[in-house]
Amino acid sequence: MAASPLPPPDPQFVLRGTHSAVHALHFFGGAQGQGRPLLLSGSLSGLVHIWSLQTRRAVATLDGHGGKCVTWLQTLPQGHLLLSQGRDLKLRLWDLAEGRNAVVDSVPVESMGFCRSSVLARGPERWMLAKPGGGSDEVQILEMPSKTSVCTLKPEADAKPGMPMCLELWQADSSPRPLLLAGYEDGSVALWDVSERKVCSRVACHPEPVMGFDFDSQKARGVSGSAEKALAVWSLDEQQALQVCRTHELTNPGIADVKIRPDRKILATAGWDHRVRVFHWWTMKPLAVLSFHSATIHCVAFATDGLLAAGSGDQRISIWSLYPIRSDASTPSVGHAEGREVGTQALA
């Protein structure tokens, strides 16, 4: 008779000290890009903490949002520039080079919604920024760092998608034209051609607002979550038409964030039920349910080396090492996490 499988692992370690709920996470390699990555966290209190994963302590604290919640963090290709978005209706650009923690620029955000912005590198010193626009259903596109307005994307007159909830700028390998995926309040996902300022396609994914999504440009496939008890997996064909491939039922309702790991083997969801759920990205097979937090998980993030971070309303950040990235493996080593077997109890 086979031995009983072991329960899911504990976190590799836990970061404490934000003193408020964690709403945004982002890994980056630091100015030199050597050693373990640094982790950035954004909190309800308006602070951004920079964490060393070696000492497991905050090495710097950035205070630039007037005590208002930080909802999005993104480093730029240069490595030492950071964008932070807050509920103070500001996007802040920080210079983190050589120990500096200075705000060097600011961009107003005209929407009080929860929509996170997105960036797309356009060269070594230029990038495109998509942010919620002045109208409730609009997305504004800027060329940065000049802050030149490229366009405002407004849904067609007969469409009523509501507010944009999440954005992702991207560019197909076969074309230089920038594209934007936008998840909306009505549960739809739309693909915009930024140059033409038009919607290429739109697909209904959820009966509730899209709370988070991620897109795999190599597979032309995305996944989204909402307040309901299901994930939606959708694809983009060669004619730029979106279609829902399948839905995956969940045990409990409410997904705040979804992230695909950089190697495109697994994905993680942030649950209102205090749990992180891990799935095989291609098959959507449930791999593990990570139970550690005592409040809603607002955000998840993957590092390039495969580390997973989860931020919660319980003011803690958990760090997990699951299904390590292996250069000689085409699929994650299903069944093991930190040397321990993930048992059937871990499958959602």
Automatic annotation (TrEMBL):
What is the top-level taxon of the source organism? Eukaryota
SMART domains for the chain: WD40
The protein's matches in Gene3D superfamilies, at most eight in alphabetical order, are given as: YVTN repeat-like/Quinoprotein amine dehydrogenase (2.130.10.10)
- Write down the InterPro entries for this protein, in alphabetical order: WD40/YVTN_repeat-like_dom_sf, WD40_PAC1, WD40_repeat_dom_sf, WD40_rpt
Segments of this protein annotated with the region Disordered: 329-348
Q: Where are the transmembrane segments?
A: none
List keywords of the entry alphabetically.
Repeat, WD repeat
What name has this protein been given in UniProt? Guanine nucleotide-binding protein subunit beta-like protein 1
